[in-house]
Specification:
Elements lengths: L1 E5 L4 E6 L5 H17 L4 E6 L3 E6 L6 H11 L12 E8 L7 H8 L3 H10 L1 E7 L6 E4 L14 E4 L3 E5 L2 E4 L4 E3 L2 E5 L20 E6 L2 H6 L5
Parallel strand pairs: 5-13
Antiparallel strand pairs: 1-2, 2-4, 3-4, 5-12, 6-7, 6-13, 7-10, 8-11, 9-10, 9-12
Helix pairs in contact: 1-2, 3-4
Amino acid sequence: MMRWSPAGVTGLRLSHDDAPSPGVTASLLRLRQLLVEKHPGGIVDSVLGYQTLTVFFDPAVITRDRLADTVESLGADRSDVPLSGRRIEVPVWYSEESGIDLAAVAEYCRVSADDVVEMHSSEVYNAYATGFAPGFCYLGDTPEPLTIPRLDAPRREVPAGSVALADRQTAVYPSVSPGGWRLIGLCPLKLFDLGQSPPGLIAVGDQISFRPISRDRFLELGGIL
């Protein structure tokens, strides 16, 4: 079931009752597309979450009530819509040099560091939401044995390209920033570049896999230590 609520003066937040899943993400993406097609001059921006779509509108073009009526008329609250995003392979140099928490993650999860790498790189992850920083995308779900809490105290500076874990999520930090996730490797690719279109490498709805690479290959691909 889909519910809506106001989000500021010119926003409408649509919330799914279903648990986060690729189907929920797909239905929210489809709903956003339909709303833009239905009201091309009225929708000015949108933000996708795990179970939410927040749409921002131009009140000179469309009212919140009319937008809500459109949502209800579309009946786009199904969570069985197939996800049809891009498939992206992300290279990662996994090591204690590139991921300072790799050994600690292995100890917490009671597996070896090699097991952490194998489990993390064997999954295909769904891009559920963006946030925290431009280009930062929340990916899930990690294998259950890799479930691990955030750090008690966030670091003041996490290197750009850091591949990290928190709870049952994984992500790549697109730029140097504070962060409290567990770092297990480095990606040499730019996750966010205003000179490219679109600027973000990963978008909600994409499916992501991680491919282990060596230190030398990391440097060949433009990685910076």
